[in-house]
Amino acid sequence: MKIKSGIIDQFEHYSHFASLKEFNTHMELWLAVYKYEFSKGELVGLKRLARFAAKKPGVCNAKIGTMLKAIHEEYAGNGISRSTFKRMIQRAISLGILTVHETERKNGSQSSNLYVFNRFPASEPPKEEKLNHPNKTISLPKTKNQENNKRKENVHTDTTGNFEVKQPDTLDDTFTSDRIPVPFKQAVAYFFPEVRIIEEYWKMARIAAYRNNYENDLEKVVDTAIPSFKQMISKLKAGSVRNPISYYFGILMKKFEVLYFEELFDMGFCEGEWS
C-alpha cells in the first residue's frame, strides 16, 4: 500500500534511530561489511542517499534527480547515472540496508519514494546457512617459494639494468598497517594473507570493542578478537557461514558482552549485591 507524500517531518516515525550519531554508527557497520558488494558509482550513490537522510536520521524522501544533481555538482560534472543509482537501491534492499516505500500525491499519482535505512543486525550472529557457492573456500597461505616467485613476477629488469616495480594485483600481509597488533595479523593472515581482508577484520574488532566500551584496552580487544576469528573459521570450514565478516562481528559482540558481565561479577555487582 502506498503512503501519502509530504514533507520529511511527517515521516519521522519511520526512523529506526534515536540520533544522527546512532545512524552514522550503523551506516559505518553496514559499509564495513558490504561496501565491496557495490561498484564505485553505486557506493557514491549510497553515501549521498545517507547524507540526504541526515535531517530525520535514516529517512529520506528526496527525488532521485535531486540527489543525482548533488552528486554531479560535488564531483565537478562527473556524477553517476540514474540506472546506477537504481541498481544501488536494489542492491541495498537485497542486503537488508534499505526498505523502500512508494508514495503518492493526493490525486493518486506516484511521487518520490521514501527510503528508510535499517539498523545493522549486530545483536547476534547471522543465521547459519550452507554455502551455495563451492568456490568460496579458504585460501591457504602460499609457501615461501610461491611467495618469492610472486615477488619476482612483480619486478622487471629493463635493458639498462634498472629495476621497474610492477603494481601487484593484491598486497599481502607484509603491507599491513603497524596499528594492527602482530598476533592478530598473524592469526588472520594464516587463512587470508591479503592486507585488505586483514584490516577489514581488525576494523570490525575495533567497532565491536567501541560499542562495548573496550576501545582503550588493546590487550582485551586482541584476546577477544583472535578466539572470535578462530571460532568463525571453524564454522566457515564446516560450510555453515554465508558472510564470514558479519558472522565474526556477531561472535565479537557476544564475547564482549560476556566479558563485561564477568567483570561486573568479579567486582561484586551480582544479584543481591547491588546495594
Question: Care to describe what's here?
Answer:
The chain has helices spanning 20-34, 40-52, 64-74, 82-95, 144-153, 182-189, 195-211, 218-237, 244-266; strands at residues 3-4, 59-60, 98-101, 103-104, 114-117, 155-157, 163-165. The chain is mainly alpha-helical and 275 residues long. Helix 2 packs across helix 4 (82-95), helix 6 runs parallel beside helix 8 (218-237) and helix 8 (218-237) packs across helix 9. The strands form three sheets. A three-stranded antiparallel beta sheet has the order 2-5-3. The protein is built from nine helices and seven strands; from the N terminus they run E-H-H-E-H-H-E-E-E-H-E-E-H-H-H-H. The chain has two domains: 3-117, Arc Repressor Mutant, subunit A, CATH 1.10.10; 169-266, no CATH class. Residues 134-143 have a biased composition (Polar residues). Residues 144-153 have a biased composition (Basic and acidic residues). Residues 125-153 are annotated as: Disordered.
Give a brief outline of the structure:
By secondary structure, the protein is mainly alpha-helical. The protein has nine helices and seven strands, in the order E-H-H-E-H-H-E-E-E-H-E-E-H-H-H-H. Helix 6 packs across helix 7, helix 6 packs parallel to helix 8 and helix 8 packs across helix 9.
List its traits:
globular, 7 strands, mainly alpha, 275 residues, Arc Repressor Mutant, subunit A, three-stranded antiparallel beta sheet, single chain
Low-confidence parts, pLDDT < 50 over ≥5 residues?
A: 123-141, 151-168, 271-275
Overall CATH architecture of the largest domain:
Orthogonal Bundle
The CATH class name of the largest domain reads Mainly Alpha
Trace the largest sheet across and list its strands: 2-5-3
CATH topology of the largest domain: Arc Repressor Mutant, subunit A
Which geometry do the CA atoms define?
Answer: globular
* Global structural class: mainly alpha
What is the number of strand segments? 7
Beta-strand portion reads 5-15%
Mean of the pLDDT scores? 77
> How many DSSP helices?
9
Q: Alpha-carbon distance between the termini? A: 53 Å
Structurally, the number of domains stands at 2
Task: Name the helicity range.
Answer: 40-55%
The major pleated sheet works out as: 3 strands, antiparallel
Please tell me how large the radius of gyration is: 23 Å
Biased composition (Polar residues): 134-143
Biased composition (Basic and acidic residues): 144-153
Region (Disordered): 125-153
